[in-house]
Specification:
This protein is mainly beta and 392 residues long. The protein has 5 helices and 22 strands. It has 2 domains: 149 residues, Jelly Rolls; 180 residues, no CATH class.
């Protein structure tokens, strides 16, 4: 009888505990929790009906670009400068000092790895010998005005395939380059200036900054010593850069237009006042939809958007440590926006973000995104936020 009584008491106690531990505390339990410790977990989706967009051209230097771009396409022209250099074997160096070496042939090989425009349109360009020095990392379009170069085109006998462009280079110029290595009285080798002659296509080639295989531009030099030997020297770029000039493409209020090369960026602002100020953002996803019909991309598409937090949108000053990346999947760019969003909620002034294409130094793609003014609400930029609100 005593054993049965103990079991009954334990059962009733357990039942009371289970009843008390539900998701909605009783008035007695609730009164024990301070208001400051109570939280609400919620989510919302903001479609940017209250948003603003403003595009502008940002000046960027392309000396560190992994790709050299050459050609004219729609609103942009790109020229490139390349200086070739090679180690000279002792077997050639000694007779070269004695002026016993002839250059019997020389040609350049270019391996396209990027293309935009009409593939049936052969890129035509001039090649001129540069007389003055230049520094790749500081060289911009306006620097061309100060560049001294010969007016004679030293390229000839062009041969085009989809994977290789070759052309001969004046052997007298190349011989002078070699001789300048052993004779300080001769002009220094300052490289070549490539200038497009026709419109409709831009090609990209490996630069000094990104030589990963045998597809780097090459200068082949066939040298000959009378009665002794014929040898071939291979030179690769020791310095290279491309520079661009152009105008903003046509834009409409329904779109956000971004463009590589020209470095067309956009200021984007979105209203986040619906999110309570005392919230902690658990996760937030910002999504842009691509207007495919208005975009114009080359053989390698843009796969990432970059965003920066604006410290001062009027002066165009960003926080360089605040970069957020949105990754492309199909016809959308999306990614975690929490880093920037939390700063706004915590009290930093919401002056928007700067949007740009992360491949702007190495491509000429134009990517058009639907803006907040898009007629189809499903195409507008969208911010989905999961947050925890702490009661005051």
């Amino acid at each position: 009888m005593r054993k049965l009584y103990i079991l009954s008491v334990l059962f009733i106690t357990a039942l009371l505990l289970i009843t008390a531990c539900n998701d909605d505390p009783t008035s007695i339990g609730e009164s024990l929790i301070p208001n400051s410790d109570k939280v609400n977990v919620d989510s919302l989706t903001i479609t940017s009906s209250k948003a603003s967009v403003n595009s502008f051209i940002e000046t960027i230097k392309k000396g560190t670009s992994p790709r050299l771009l050459l050609g004219k396409y729609k609103n942009i022209e790109s020229r490139m400068l390349v200086k070739f250099f090679s180690l000279i074997p002792d077997s050639v160096l000694t007779p070269l000092k004695e002026n016993q070496i002839d250059v019997v042939d020389s040609w350049v090989e270019l391996y396209p790895e990027y293309s935009i425009g009409d593939s049936s349109n052969q890129l035509q360009f001039s090649v001129k010998h540069i007389n003055s020095g230049w520094i790749a990392k500081n060289f911009v379009w306006d620097s061309l005005q100060m560049l001294n170069y010969d007016q004679n085109d030293i390229a000839s006998q062009f041969v085009y395939t989809d994977s290789l462009i070759t052309f001969n280079v004046n052997t007298d110029v190349v011989k002078e380059w070699l001789r300048s290595r052993v004779d300080d009285s001769l002009p220094e080798n300052n490289g070549l200036l490539f200038t497009p002659l026709n419109e409709g296509r831009v090609l990209g080639f490996q630069s000094v900054a990104f030589v990963v295989n045998d597809k780097a531009p090459k200068l082949k030099i066939v040298v000959h010593k009378q009665g002794a030997f014929t040898d071939t020297i291979t030179a690769i770029p020791s310095r290279s850069v491309h520079v661009m000039d152009g105008t903003k493409p046509e834009e409409t209020p329904q779109n956000i237009t971004l463009q590589d090369g020209l470095a067309l960026h956009s200021k984007f602002w979105i209203d986040v006042t619906k999110i309570p100020q005392n919230s902690a953002v658990n996760k937030s996803i910002l999504t842009f939809n691509i207007n495919v019909s208005a975009s114009d991309e080359g053989s390698i598409k843009t796969d990432t958007l970059g965003l920066f937090f604006y410290k001062d949108s009027t002066a165009n000053v960003v926080d360089s440590a605040s970069k957020v990346l949105l990754i492309r999947e199909g016809d959308q760019f999306s990614g975690d926006f929490t880093r920037i969003l939390q700063r706004w909620i915590d009290g930093d002034n919401n002056q928007g973000v700067r949007i740009y294409l992360t491949d702007e130094r190495r491509a000429l793609n134009k990517v058009v995104l639907y803006s907040n003014s898009a007629s189809n609400i499903a195409k507008k930029p969208k911010l989905t936020v999961y947050y925890t609100e702490k009661n005051k």
